[in-house]
Write a structure and sequence with these properties.
Layout lengths: L3 E2 L11 H6 L3 E8 L2 E8 L5 E8 L7 E4 L19 E4 L2 E5 L6 E4 L6 E2 L6 E9 L4 E8 L8 E8 L8 E4 L4 E7 L5 E7 L10 E7 L6 E9 L5 E6 L5 E5 L6 E6 L2 E4 L19 E5 L2 E8 L2 E8 L5 E3 L6 E7 L3 E7 L6 E6 L5 E6 L14 E6 L5 E7 L6 E2 L8 E5 L13 H7 L4 E6 L8 H4 L9 H15 L8 E6 L1 H12 L5 E5 L5 H7 L7 H5 L7 H6 L12 E7 L8 H13 L3 E6 L9 H19 L18
Parallel strand pairs: 1-32, 33-34, 33-35, 35-36, 36-37, 37-38
Antiparallel strand pairs: 2-3, 3-4, 4-5, 6-7, 7-8, 8-9, 10-11, 11-12, 12-13, 14-15, 15-16, 16-17, 18-19, 19-20, 20-21, 22-23, 23-24, 24-25, 26-27, 27-28, 28-29, 30-31, 31-34
Helix pairs in contact: 4-5
Amino acid sequence: MNGEIAPYGSWKSPITSDLIVAGSIGLGEIQLDGEAIYWLEMRPSENGRSALVKWTPDGGRAGRIEEMSAAGFNARTLVHEYGGGSYAVHNEALYFSNFIDQRVYVQYPYAEPEPLTASEKLCFADGVVDARRGRMICIREAHLTPGEEAVNSLVSLNLDGNDEIGETLAAGNDFYASPCLSPDGQKLAWLTWRHPNMPWDGTELWVGELDETGTAVHHLTLVAGGKDESIFQPKWSPDGTLYFVSDRSNWWNLYRWQGGQVEAVCPMPAEFGLPQWVFRMSTYGFADAHTIICAYTQDGVWRLARLDVTSGQLEDFDLPFTDIGSVQVGAGFVAFVGGSAIRPSSVIRLDLQTAQWQVLRQSTQLTVDAAYLSSPQAIVFPTANGLTAHAIYYPPQNRDFTAPVDEKPPLLTLSHGGPTSAAKATLNLGIQYFTSRGFAVVDVNYGGSTGYGRDYRQRLNGTWGIVDTQDCANAAHYLVAQGLADERRLAIRGGSAGGYTTLCAITFDDTFTAGASHFGISDLEAMTIETHKFESRYLDTLIASYPEGKEVYVQRSPIHFIDQINCALILFQGLEDKIVPPNQAEMMFEALKAKGLPVAYVPFAGEQHGFRRADNIKRALDGELYFYSRVFGFALAEPVKPVEIENLPE
């Protein structure tokens, strides 16, 4: 037996909230411009500002990194509220949406940004530069009439600054995404879909011919898709063949459109696509007309591979990454964001000739001895209706401590957001914050999660609040049965949709003794009435059509069943959240407070959906740990700022 003997939860850890927020940034949205690699950095230390960064191969293999964003500018669009696709780059000119005013700016090298659009009521995203015509083709979201649904369309925006609203290329559907130009600039492909579908339910892939001015598109052709087929990332090959990802076989696989026919390129039980919560997601690109560099996932593990489109042969690269995204392919190299259980998410450049890779930027500079890190383990466990579900289990780990032999650890069950998303086994310091203090953690990929095929994803259709709750509870029961968790100290935590699952679990199930809801949904009816356009009909699929199915909304809403809740709860909420408004948390807090249950509410001014500011991220981590220490009755190794807990017995 090694280390000091101390109760689970009370271990002293070097993975502090201060270190996590001080040294951590978000990385994503890679774009290429020749040999230059651009990406976005979301910086909690700068109040969540998204800064544009550029890497060039100047000065040898290490290259040179420089920030491109001018002071005071934040590259972030609010189209769909979740954004993505906030910038485009061409010949060193940057075109980006600025968060504070949602105007599109152009920034030339060594110059200040200049506005191209004027109205704060028009948001733009997912732009692709049409250099020949001096235009950018992008998605426009218009918020013109208060109280009415925003209008989305595909537009062509003049880049000389004399066209502040753009020329409409396609309109009439509820949503548009992923415009891409053919190599000769003559054809345009894009995705579109209608309520109540979300892009992972069903989208349509269209192709049209652009006129000489780039202000109109003609001879439209529906290539693939529909209400029961999800299309992802259309992309033209160098020889003008259109490729895309479709889940028509149950799996998001690669296809091509050639001679008016759609054919599979590499059919296999794996996912080459992702749920399009944000714009500009990318899992593949072209090394040449016959070679695709692509990322795909099987059993929760992502791989990068070289695909010969003629033979269909797929050859994996030997890389130490288990999570790969934002794939962009250049001349002789590929750039992507990669991470693993022991490697933080990083911007990676891989040489396609030598297969040598280098880290350009890490999401954290915090280095932690591996002896403090818990190694994730993929588990499959039995759940309701004779089915199985998936999860990632993290045992407690800290080289300096051992628990008493007769004690089992408290378990923190994580329910991811979306709910159409997935838990990943990438190094997550937020998880390690708890495991290094003596918690066991299980990150559940409940039915409805992506990465396991369309059928698994659709388990949640009509059953949200049931299947996810059952799977989270059964993951906890499974670990208790294995002797890996204390059945008296089971907590569940989630954000957004995961917050809803958390609230359902403490309401409609008696497995858990504590819960932590981060901007979670307590009233489904209020959610569907008040939320933004992108998700305003999402619950038609997950719950029932509204208002016809109003009674189902009531029956699945925790706020109406306070009498069934008998455990402690802490709620964290951004006060400017338009996706899950603050009243969702406030109603639950007041109801539990009136009932006399231990409950805490921590609101954050200036935060939207998810917390971006360093001080708030720190407060949420430490506050949740403090809450568990009081509810589960263990002493903290070091003091943290307490939260006020109502109705907590002394």
